[in-house]
């Protein structure tokens, strides 16, 4: 096996490992919901949007014939669907959750219908589906910026997860390199914001250290 093939295999393995580690951070929320039999302090939309994102990238991986994309997003879709179902089970306001789920799934089905029925050319399908997945992933990575602004305002990082930040950084970096190796901008470009926002979070953890967070809360009381 040539050196380039070994590097590609290692990079592919890193993408799978880091991404699954990032997805598994939701297991703590799953345990919390099962132990408390409630959804207090657990956000639903990240589960749902990540699930839709996984299903979109799974379609792209199948169309492209990329085993790494297929494996990662199949496992990711299964995990996120599990999180969604458990949240739905313990959520007291099921109507809102079901409405959000139906809306995003409807958008996903409409997208599938468009790509598979109205765009018969496989090359055009791959290009347009890649663009859709890229835009969706970028919006997911940029959506927490409001939380980051809140962290700066409160001078507290208690709403941030350090382990998720590290997992997101490693995942985004590995996928950016993977996309670069494949010369696939639809994989490389949307992961760059994940790297940037992860470094911003790490800077916030450094700026607002836990002891400073405690002192700030004491001053507030």
UniProtKB/TrEMBL annotation:
Q: What UniProt keywords apply to this chain's record, in alphabetical order?
A: Cell membrane, Golgi apparatus, Membrane, Repeat, Sugar transport, Transmembrane, Transmembrane helix, Transport
- Residue ranges crossing the lipid bilayer per the database entry: 6-23, 69-90, 97-117, 160-180, 186-206
Q: How does it sit in the membrane?
A: Multi-pass membrane protein
Tree of life domain: Eukaryota
Coiled-coil regions, chain positions: none
Q: Which GO terms describe its molecular function?
A: glucoside transmembrane transporter activity; sugar transmembrane transporter activity
Q: Per the record, a Pfam family?
A: MtN3_slv
- One Gene Ontology cellular component annotation? plasma membrane
InterPro entries on file: SWEET, SWEET_rpt
Q: Where in the cell is it found?
A: Cell membrane; Golgi apparatus membrane
Biological role stated in the UniProt entry: Mediates sugar transport across membranes.
* UniProt cross-references to PANTHER family, sorted A to Z: RAG1-ACTIVATING PROTEIN 1 (PTHR10791), SUGAR TRANSPORTER SWEET1 (PTHR10791:SF30)
Similarity section: Belongs to the SWEET sugar transporter family.
Subunit record text? Interacts with TRPV2; the interaction probably occurs intracellularly and depends on TRPV2 N-glycosylation.
Q: What is this protein called?
A: Sugar transporter SWEET
- The encoding gene: Slc50a1
């Amino acid at each position: 096996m040539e050196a380039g093939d070994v590097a590609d295999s290692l990079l592919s393995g890193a993408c799978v490992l880091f991404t699954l580690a990032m997805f598994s951070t939701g297991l703590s929320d799953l345990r919390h919901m099962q132990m408390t039999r409630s959804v207090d302090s657990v956000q639903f939309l990240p589960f749902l949007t990540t699930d839709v994102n996984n299903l979109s990238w799974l379609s792209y991986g199948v169309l492209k014939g990329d085993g790494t994309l297929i494996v990662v997003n199949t496992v990711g879709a299964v995990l996120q669907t599990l999180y969604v179902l458990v949240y739905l089970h313990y959520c007291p306001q099921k109507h809102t959750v079901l409405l959000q789920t139906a809306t995003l799934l409807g958008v996903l089905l409409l997208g599938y219908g468009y790509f598979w029925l109205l765009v018969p050319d496989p090359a055009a399908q791959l290009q347009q589906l890649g663009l859709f997945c890229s835009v969706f992933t970028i919006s997911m990575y940029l959506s927490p910026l409001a939380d980051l602004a809140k962290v700066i305002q409160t001078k507290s990082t208690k709403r941030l997860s350090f382990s998720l930040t590290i997992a997101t950084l490693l995942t985004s970096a590995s996928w950016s390199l993977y996309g670069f190796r494949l010369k696939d901008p639809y994989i490389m470009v949307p992961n760059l914001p994940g790297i940037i926002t992860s470094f911003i979070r790490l800077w916030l953890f450094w700026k607002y250290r836990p002891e400073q967070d405690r002192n700030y809360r004491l001053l507030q009381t």
